[in-house]
């Protein structure tokens, strides 16, 4: 079901087109993804697993898992969560491993277009946008690529207002910040933007960093630069419970994408797992979209998010069940019920405390892990730091990794807030321009100012563990760039 009214957002849909699912026509709109159009039509099962042939549905909605792979115009393994609809498109559920059409020929590397710049930025979220803007302002020629069809990353789905200082967009909604940063990026003539472009490898050729990209699932592009900022964000975490692969079980970000980016209701009744900031914010965003939130369950003995978010949720009458966890999802082809139970002091379910919720959506807001695959492939030193959300690249105070000329920023560097992602992006962008000798020494003051803002932002109770994780990383290296 597509939303027509929303208290905060206005959905501007493109031209109506027709796509075909298993040969049957479906209404869609230009500018929305295949998975969005299918969800709007009530279709939840997108493919079936290889071995057990179990139904699978949308999970992350940002192209970082395999749950939405489908056969589109005869081509298998298409990530339908980030692939836009086209008039006449033929869509089929994928059943296990699929084969390319007999006449399909993969593009050859020698045919790749070559794009050159001083700094290449991978990722168009808050960190990547700020890196591109600041590197460009410091005098660098910048290429920015993102595999999604729009700039903004996670900002494009955030309807809440940000905390912090005025210069860090305090009091501004995330969706508006995405628009502002996108406009600022497009204003700069020395930034070239490539959307719907996936970075699939980082290589070194002499003094150049080579990023191999695939544009719109078909065109190979070589991006060549002397410095690289990796701001690829994060992935949703999963937790183990029975039937956790049923369609209707989403990462929190996927639900925000459906509702807040494309104006499609994910379902009618939702159980949220996780009472951190993401789970709390998701609860009142669901209410904004006219969806009933049955409860939030949280394994910890207390709510993990900000008091202001928890208070807002409680005023809406949504119960928050601490010391509870989900035991299983029930349903045949999609979620129909969720069973939760109370936990004892040893984190074991207490027999007899089971509760059943009749829901068609289970939202997992159980944390993120940094997307460091490209950094790992490029040879950057990787370390597990629990306080930063998992495996991260070792880097110095100027965000440079152990591979000279490769910088990192945002959730890729450690799971934090969008505000810290923007500040880290600023540091990385300027540092990349300084590394290349393009920026003057006066830009060092801008880095120092951003570092002070980061330290201040992390000084509160929610940032102390992050600061500890960063201290662990910085112990691996010394000094500035």
Automatic annotation (TrEMBL):
Residues 15-97 form the 2Fe-2S ferredoxin-type domain. Keywords: Oxidoreductase. Signal peptide: none annotated. It holds the Pfam family Fer2_4. GO terms for molecular function: 2 iron, 2 sulfur cluster binding; oxidoreductase activity. The keyword Oxidoreductase applies. It comes from the Archaea. InterPro entries: 2Fe-2S-bd_N (IPR042204), 2Fe-2S_ferredoxin-like_sf (IPR036010), 2Fe-2S_ferredoxin-type (IPR001041), 2Fe2S_fd_BS (IPR006058), FAD/NAD-bd_sf (IPR036188), FAD/NAD-binding_dom (IPR023753), Metab_Enz_Cyan_OpOx_G3PDH (IPR051691). This is Sarcosine oxidase subunit alpha. It comes from Thermococcus siculi.
């Amino acid at each position: 079901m597509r939303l027509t009214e929303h208290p905060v957002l206005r959905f501007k849909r493109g031209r109506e087109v027709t796509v075909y699912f298993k040969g049957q026509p479906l209404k869609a709109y230009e500018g929305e993804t295949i998975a969005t159009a299918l969800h709007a039509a009530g279709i939840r099962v997108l493919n079936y697993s290889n071995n057990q042939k179990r139904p699978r549905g949308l999970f992350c909605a940002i192209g970082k898992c395999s749950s939405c792979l489908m056969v589109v115009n005869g081509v298998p393994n298409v990530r339908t969560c980030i692939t836009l609809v086209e008039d006449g498109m033929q869509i089929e559920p994928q059943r296990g491993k699929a084969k390319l059409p007999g006449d399909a020929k993969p593009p050859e590397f020698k045919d790749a277009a070559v794009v050159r710049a001083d700094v290449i930025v991978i990722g168009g979220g808050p960190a990547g946008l700020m890196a591109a803007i600041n590197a460009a302002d410091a005098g660098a020629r910048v290429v920015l690529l993102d595999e999604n069809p729009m700039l903004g990353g996670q900002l494009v789905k955030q309807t809440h207002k940000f905390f912090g200082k005025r210069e860090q967009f305090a009091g501004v909604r995330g969706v508006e910040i995405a628009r502002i940063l996108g406009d600022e990026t497009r204003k700069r003539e020395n930034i070239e933007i490539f959307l719907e472009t996936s970075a699939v490898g980082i290589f070194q050729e002499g003094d150049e960093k080579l990023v191999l990209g695939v544009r719109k699932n078909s065109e190979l592009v070589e991006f060549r630069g002397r410095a690289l900022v990796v701001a690829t964000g994060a992935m949703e975490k999963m937790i183990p419970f029975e039937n956790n692969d049923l369609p209707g079980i989403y990462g929190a970000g996927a639900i925000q994408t459906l509702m807040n980016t494309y104006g499609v209701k994910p379902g009618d009744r939702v159980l949220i797992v996780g009472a951190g900031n993401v789970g709390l914010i998701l609860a009142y965003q669901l209410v904004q979209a006219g969806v009933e939130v049955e409860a939030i369950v949280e394994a910890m003995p207390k709510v993990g998010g900000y008091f202001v978010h928890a208070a807002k949720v409680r005023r809406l009458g949504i119960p928050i069940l601490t010391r509870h966890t989900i035991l299983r999802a029930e349903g045949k082809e999609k979620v129909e019920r969720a069973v939760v139970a109370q936990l004892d002091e040893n984190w074991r379910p207490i027999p007899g405390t089971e509760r059943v919720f009749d829901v068609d959506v289970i939202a997992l807001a159980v944390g993120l892990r940094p997307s460091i695959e490209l950094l790992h492939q490029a040879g950057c030193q990787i370390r597990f730091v629990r306080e930063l959300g998992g495996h991260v690249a070792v880097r110095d105070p100027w965000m440079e990794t152990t591979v000279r000329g490769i910088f990192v920023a945002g959730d890729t560097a450690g799971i934090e807030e969008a505000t810290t992602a923007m500040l880290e992006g600023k540091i990385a962008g300027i540092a990349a321009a300084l590394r290349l000798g393009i920026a003057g020494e006066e830009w060092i003051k801008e880095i120092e100012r951003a570092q002070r803002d980061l330290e201040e932002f992390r000084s509160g109770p929610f940032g102390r563990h992050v600061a500890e994780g960063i201290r662990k990383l910085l112990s691996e290296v010394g000094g500035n760039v």
